[in-house]
Design goal:
It is globular and about 70 Å long. It is α/β, with parallel strands linked by helices. The protein starts with a helix and ends in a 12-residue tail after the last helix. It contains 11 helices and 17 strands. Helices cover about 30% and strands about 20% of the residues. It folds into 2 domains: about 250 residues, TIM Barrel; about 130 residues, Lyase, Ornithine Decarboxylase, Chain A, domain 1. It binds pyridoxal-5'-phosphate (PLP). Pyridoxal-5'-phosphate binds next to helix 9.
C-alpha cells in the first residue's frame, strides 16, 4: 500500500481535529514511520562493517526531519550551499556530510570548505584543479555509460549529465592523488524510484569491480563505495514494496566475498531520500468546489505548488477521502488545484468516493519531493508542514508562506547601470 497502514491508523482518527486546529492545506509527516524505516535500513546492512546512510536533503529539507535523521545516526547528502547550511544547522559536520554537487561553482567549493569541510563527491575530472584545497578524502561520481536502467527519469547514463566517464575515471583518481588526496571513495547514482532491488545489487557489484580495477592500477584502497539513492516506494496500491531485506543480504554477500579476496571491507554508503521519508508524508487538502462539464472536477484548496510530481512526471499519488470509503457510492473525477495550468491536477479520471465541499482529502506519499519541489508560479504560496510526533503531539515544523514572503525579493536597494 502507499501510505503505511500504521500511519493511516494513527492519522485518520485524529485528522479532523488536526485540520480544524491547523487549517488545510498542510503536509503532515509521521515521525514513527520515518524512524522505523531508518531502523529497517540500518538492520538490512548490519552485516557490513561500516554502513552509512546520507539522507538526501533535497527530498525533505526541513530541519526537524533532519534532526530525526541525525538522531538515527544518518549523515546528509547535499548539493547546494543552502542544503549545506541546513545540515550544519542541525549539527552535521565533517564526514557526516557528503557534497554531491554537479556543475559546481567556485562559491560552492569555497563554502563547503569554509563552513567546516565535508566529503567532496566530484562530478567531473575537470573539477580537480578547481578544488581550492584538495582534502585528504575524495570521492568521484561515476557514470558507467550505456547500461540497462529500466528507468525513465534518469534515463540512459550516456544521456545523463552526471559523473565521470569510464574512460576518465582512473585518471581522475590519479590526478586527485597527485594533488594530495590519500583516502578515496567511489560513488554512483543510477536509479530513480526503482522497486527492483536487484538493480541496486548490480550497482554495488559494478562499483566493487571498479574499485578492484582502480586499486590495482593506482595502488590505492577505497574507504567506501556509495551506491546513491533511488530506492523506490510503491505509489500505487497494487505495487509491491522493494525487498530491502533481500537487497541487504545480497549486497552483504558481495562485500563478504570482496573481503575474502582483498582482506579488507570498504564501507557501504547510501544516499536515499524518497525511500526514507516518501511514504511517511501526506498532503491534506479540503474540497472547496466541484464542477460538471465534460469531466467532473473536484477543486481542492492546494495546487501543484505544493506537489509537482503528478504534473511534472504524470506520477500517481493515491488519494483517500476522510470518513468515506470505496464501499459506498463512487464516481470518476479529476482532482484539481487552482493554478492556470491545465496539468494542475492531483488525479486524472480517478474513481473515488463521492466528494462534497468540505470533505478532507489525503494525498499520499508526499514525504519526499513534495513541499521541497514547490514553487510560486502564478503567485501561489506553499502550505505549512506538520509533524505527527512519536509522543502523539502534532508540531508545526514550517509555517505556510504568506504574501510578505512572496514580495520579499522586491525589497532591495535601488541600482542602475548607466550605459
Ligand atoms: C536525488 C538524489 C538522491 C536521492 O534520490 P532518491 O530517489 O530520493 O533516493 C541521492 N543522491 C543524489 C546525488 C541525488 O541527486
Amino acid at each position: 500500500m502507499p501510505l503505511s497502514s500504521s500511519y493511516t491508523d494513527r492519522l485518520y482518527p485524529v485528522l479532523e481535529n488536526i485540520s480544524n486546529h491547523f487549517n488545510t492545506p498542510f503536509h503532515i509527516y509521521d515521525e514513527e514511520g520515518i524512524r522505523n524505516t531508518c531502523k529497517d535500513l540500518r538492520e538490512a546492512f548490519s552485516g557490513i562493517e561500516e554502513f552509512r546512510e546520507y539522507y538526501a536533503v533535497k527530498a525533505l529539507p526541513n530541519p526537524r526531519i533532519l534532526e530525526i535523521m541525525k538522531d538515527m545516526g544518518f549523515g546528509f547528502d547535499c548539493s547546494s550551499i543552502t542544503e549545506l547550511m541546513l545540515s550544519r544547522g542541525v549539527g552535521g559536520s565533517g564526514e557526516e556530510i557528503m557534497f554531491t554537487s554537479n556543475n559546481t561553482s567556485p562559491e560552492e567549493f569555497d563554502f563547503a570548505e569554509a563552513s567546516g569541510g565535508c566529503i567532496l563527491n566530484l562530478d567531473d575530472i575537470s573539477l580537480i584543479p578547481k578544488v581550492p584545497n584538495m582534502p585528504e578524502l575524495i570521492c568521484f561520481r561515476y557514470n558507467p555509460g550505456a547500461r540497462r536502467t529500466g528507468n525513465d527519469i534518469i534515463g540512459n547514463p550516456t544521456e545523463a549529465k552526471y559523473g565521470v566517464s569510464h574512460d576518465q575515471i582512473i585518471d581522475a583518481y590519479r590526478q586527485a592523488k597527485e594533488r594530495g588526496a590519500t583516502r578515496f571513495g567511489l560513488h554512483t547514482m543510477l536509479a530513480s524510484n526503482e522497486l527492483h532491488y536487484s538493480y541496486m545489487v548490480q550497482t554495488a557489484e559494478m562499483l566493487l569491480e571498479l574499485v578492484e580495477e582502480i586499486s590495482e592500477k593506482l595502488q590505492i584502497t577505497f574507504e567506501f563505495i556509495n551506491i546513491g539513492g533511488g530506492l523506490g516506494i510503491p505509489y500505487r496500491p497494487e505495487q509491491e514494496a522493494l525487498d530491502l531485506a533481500a537487497m541487504g543480504r545480497e549486497i552483504t554477500e558481495l562485500f563478504t566475498a570482496f573481503k575474502a579476496k582483498h582482506s579488507y571491507m570498504p564501507g557501504l554508503y547510501m544516499e536515499s531520500g524518497r525511500f526514507v521519508t516518501g511514504p511517511h508524508g501526506a498532503l491534506v487538502v479540503k474540497a472547496i468546489n466541484r464542477k460538471d462539464i465534460y469531466h467532473t472536477y473536484v477543486g481542492v484548496d492546494a495546487c501543484m505548488s505544493a506537489l509537482m510530481r503528478p504534473a511534472l512526471y504524470g506520477a500517481y499519488h493515491h488519494i483517500d477521502v476522510l470518513g468515506k470509503n470505496m464501499d459506498g457510492e463512487t464516481e470518476t473525477v479529476d482532482v484539481v488545484g487552482s493554478l492556470c495550468e491545465n496539468n494542475d491536477k492531483f488525479a486524472i479520471q480517478r474513481t473515488l468516493p463521492v466528494i462534497t465541499d468540505g470533505d478532507i482529502l489525503i494525498i499520499h506519499d508526499t514525504g519526499a519531493h513534495g513541499q521541497a519541489m514547490g514553487f510560486n508560479y502564478n503567485g501561489k504560496l506553499r502550505p505549512k508542514e506538520l509533524l505527527l510526533r512519536s509522543d502523539s503531539e502534532v508540531e508545526l515544523i514550517r509555517r505556510e508562506e504568506t504574501a510578505k514572503d512572496y514580495f520579499a525579493t522586491l525589497e532591495f536597494t535601488e541600482q542602475r547601470l548607466k550605459l
